[in-house]
Amino acid sequence: MENFSALFGAAEPPPAAAAALGFGPAKPPGAGAAPPPAAAAAPPPGEDAARKAAAGPFYLLRELPGTTELTGSTNLITHYNLEHAYNKFCGKKVKEKLSNFLPDLPGMIDLPGSHDSSSLRSLIEKPPICGSSFTPLTGAMLTGFRLHAGPLPEQCRLMHIQPPKKKNKHKHKQSRTQDPVPPETPSDSDHKKKKKKKEEDPERKRKKKEKKKKKNRHSPEHPGVGSSQASSSLR
Amino acid sequence: MRPWPEAGRGGAAAAMAMAEKFDSLEEHLEKFVENIRQLGIIVSDFQPSSQTGLNQKLNFMVTGLQDIDKCRQQLHDISVPLEVFEYIDQGRNPQLYTKECLERALAKNEQVKGKIDTMKKFKSLLIQELTKVFPEDMAKYKAIRGEDPPP
């Protein structure tokens, strides 16, 4: 305890020592700065002494910051009544794909927007330049929409079917009655779609099986090759 | 997404009104999308007899956009965070953004609560130990500080 007070009590001599060092009258009278600092040096020690008398050894003590009701120690989810939202989103498993959020939206919406330039980010960064009002199309304008009869070429078919759902059989049939032949897109997903379509077609499945059988017959690893070679040699 | 204020009676009524506005916009958007889809069906295998229907669909597209534009005025105070658009552009469910926001908020809340609790414990331990070593000075300190607020 004595050492503690002594430490803070020992701070008194240094100001006096400092005054003796830099600002004492021992400096030559030509230094005009000497007397004012010497004069200024006198009041601060007196003020410090007054402060120390009030604060005791705690002259470095600062005021505490103001207290607030809402801090990080309170449960903010409870505070803002977000328990229901928390249980809804974090209690159950939220499905990953966008089509689970928008099941009725047609098109392959699970693909990234950058693939077919349908991203929302591009819409924000480069908003389309359009007029301020929506005017209905007149008869003269509608003449521009007179189309040729017949199906679109495969390359131009940009309309997608609805995303595949779990009950494939019924909805596949329904979609066929409502929609035309599923179109192919010029995007990079063509190969995947072609593969999927090929797998779904029963005729193609039969062809695949036949091809596989033929390949297996002609492959060197197949035991049947030996028989075929033997048969050819017999000929 | 802004946190919802305390749900009192006024809050419930406001929530209902907001839900109605969203329902109206959703209905208009669904009709518009369905119209576009049917337009695509007509165009994919066009027949001359379908011209009238096509013209009708085209005009409905314009009126549909008008209806959606009218809905915009009712929802001008709704703010949507840009990060949600990133999720949508990647083909991900935007509810995952909400989920991750809530999880991050809770994790940060727990982290800060841990820091506050640890600092409080440290303070009480420090005062306790200092009082053992410097009882008179700590008595002066407590007199200056007054009563500490309850933890």
Automatic annotation (TrEMBL), chain A:
Lineage: Eukaryota, Metazoa, Chordata, Craniata, Vertebrata
Organism in which the protein naturally occurs: Pipra filicauda (Wire-tailed manakin)
Biased composition (Basic residues): 164-175, 205-217
Low complexity: compositionally biased ranges: 18-33
Family, as annotated: Belongs to the Mediator complex subunit 19 family.
Highest taxon of source: Eukaryota
InterPro entries according to UniProt: Mediator_Med19_met
Transcription is among the record's keywords: yes
Subunit-structure text: Component of the Mediator complex.
Keyword line: Activator, Nucleus, Transcription, Transcription regulation
Compositional bias per record (Polar residues), positions renumbered to this chain: 226-235
GO molecular function: transcription coregulator activity
GO cellular component terms, A-Z: mediator complex
Bias-annotated ranges (Pro residues): 34-46
Function description: Component of the Mediator complex, a coactivator involved in the regulated transcription of nearly all RNA polymerase II-dependent genes. Mediator functions as a bridge to convey information from gene-specific regulatory proteins to the basal RNA polymerase II transcription machinery. Mediator is recruited to promoters by direct interactions with regulatory proteins and serves as a scaffold for the assembly of a functional preinitiation complex with RNA polymerase II and the general transcription factors.
Transcription regulation among keywords: yes
Subcellular location: Nucleus
Biological process, per Gene Ontology: positive regulation of transcription by RNA polymerase II
Coiled-coil regions listed: none
Region (Disordered): 18-50, 164-235
This protein's name: Mediator of RNA polymerase II transcription subunit 19
Automatic annotation (TrEMBL), chain B:
Compartments (UniProt record): Nucleus
A single GO cellular-component term on record: mediator complex
Molecular function as annotated in GO: transcription coregulator activity
Keyword Secreted attributed: no
Pfam family, one: Med10
Alphabetically ordered keywords of this record: Activator, Nucleus, Transcription, Transcription regulation
GO biological process, one term: regulation of transcription by RNA polymerase II
Entry similarity comment: Belongs to the Mediator complex subunit 10 family.
Subunit structure: Component of the Mediator complex.
PANTHER family in the cross-refs: MEDIATOR OF RNA POLYMERASE II TRANSCRIPTION SUBUNIT 10 (PTHR13345:SF13)
Function (record text): Component of the Mediator complex, a coactivator involved in the regulated transcription of nearly all RNA polymerase II-dependent genes. Mediator functions as a bridge to convey information from gene-specific regulatory proteins to the basal RNA polymerase II transcription machinery. Mediator is recruited to promoters by direct interactions with regulatory proteins and serves as a scaffold for the assembly of a functional preinitiation complex with RNA polymerase II and the general transcription factors.
Protein known as: Mediator of RNA polymerase II transcription subunit 10
Organism: Lepidothrix coronata (blue-crowned manakin)
